[in-house]
Design brief:
Blueprint lengths: L2 H7 L2 E3 L10 H11 L8 H7 L5 H11 L6 H17 L2 E8 L1 H5 L5 H19 L2 E9 L4 H16 L5 E5 L11 H9 L3 E6 L5 H9 L5 E4 L7 H9 L3 E4 L1 H6 L11 H6 L3 E4 L4 H4 L3 H12 L3 H13 L5 H18 L1
Parallel strand pairs: 1-2, 2-3, 3-4, 4-5, 5-6, 6-7, 7-8
This protein binds hypoxanthine (HPA) and zinc ion.
Hypoxanthine binds next to helix 4.
Length: about 350
């Protein structure tokens, strides 16, 4: 079996995915027309041509502007469903997806419009594609912790009945250390939310350490720059901390010059529990399977590595133990057949 078919056949979870980052140019144009929103592009080609980034902030500027076409609950529903259909075709059985409520409430779109639309999409995706999901709300780290708290309060009804399962931290990493959000993450932990944070994408290894020690996260999103601190790597490996790595995102945002230089293999060899994810697939040129195949080819990964990555994605998920066991058993069956 070729690499791509083998990877597709392995049950996988995607754990680092921003729903707003799945907004394909075709949908952007359609929603702009439907909602009568002016966009500075006339064609899919013009939009794709604008997706040239050299660093995270270049991308974020376009990403926050692109969101502007998302206005009604049905827009969020459609966006979510389109992603689930796409990732189910890649062999994903479970996803834990991010959304950025502050990117919408700042434009006057109510929190409930966004959350209800996404949740309707997730429910329909489960029915149609059999894919399970958890929803994680992220706060924007370029804003203040108080603004994060205000959003958190709006989310409380959804947290109370577990429609929102986790809290994350994203946006501009440089000069926005995790420690600024310590009180918010403590409150979220108290309320039973699972915690994740982007760290070590552009920011230093110390941000990864702070996310672990001060925010007490359950997972690190990206984490690449942890490699600069060998003692930290040992600590992350020892406690089995999951790192949600995004190869094509790293390539497009200048984290690596080419995929042959991507640190994923070094991370695996260091004993880190690494997973592969797409981050913002509409902007970075590939969904889950594209990321898996591109990095596996560039680094010469073997079948055993692919199995490890699939297992890590299930083990690093927030699924309950019986669901994890079901998926892990089915990965092992496929691995045994191939082996
Ligand atoms: N990093 C930080 N913030 C983000 C990203 C990312 O990769 N994608 C969407 N928001
Ligand atoms: Zn991300």
């Amino acid at each position: 079996m070729d690499l791509s078919s083998y990877f597709r056949a392995l049950p996988k979870a995607e754990l680092h995915l921003h729903l707003e980052g799945t907004l394909e140019p075709e949908l952007m144009i359609r929603l702009a027309a439907r909602n009568k929103v002016e966009i500075p592009f006339r064609s899919v080609e013009e939009i794709r041509a604008a997706y040239r980034f050299t660093r995270l902030q270049d991308f974020l500027d376009i990403y926050y502007r692109g969101m502007d076409v998302l206005r009604a609950e049905e827009d969020f529903h459609e966006l979510t469903l389109a992603y689930l259909e796409r990732v189910a075709a890649d062999g994903a059985v479970h996803v834990e997806v991010f959304f950025d409520p502050q990117g919408h409430t700042a434009r006057g779109i109510p929190f409930t419009t966004v959350a209800d639309g996404i949740l309707a999409g997730l429910a329909e995706g489960h029915e149609r594609f059999g894919i399970t999901s958890l929803l994680i709300m992220c706060v924007l780290r370029h804003l203040t912790e108080d603004e994060g708290f205000a959003t958190y309060r709006e989310a409380e009804p959804y947290i109370a009945d577990e429609r929102i399962a986790g809290l994350g931290l994203d946006s501009t990493e440089k000069d926005n250390p995790p420690a600024r959000f310590e009180r918010l993450f403590a409150a979220a932990r108290e309320a039973g939310l699972r915690l994740v944070a982007h760290a070590g994408e552009e920011g230093p290894a110390s941000y990864v350490a702070d996310a672990v020690d001060r925010l007490r996260v359950d997972r690190i999103d990206h984490g690449n720059r942890a490699l600069e601190d060998p003692a930290l790597v040992r600590r992350l490996a020892q406690r089995g901390m999951t790192l949600t790595v995004c190869p094509l995102s790293n390539l497009r945002l200048g984290g690596v010059a080419n995929l042959k230089q991507h640190p994923l293999k070094r991370m695996l060899d260091a004993g880190l529990k690494v997973t592969v994810n797409s981050d913002d697939p509409a902007y970075f040129g590939g969904y889950l399977l594209d990321n898996c195949v591109a990095v596996a080819e560039a680094l010469g990964l073997e079948a055993a590595d692919l199995v490890t990555l699939a297992r890590n994605s299930i083990e690093g998920s927030f699924l309950d133990a019986p669901a994890r066991k079901t998926h892990l058993d089915s990965i092992d069956r496929i691995a045994a057949m191939e082996g």
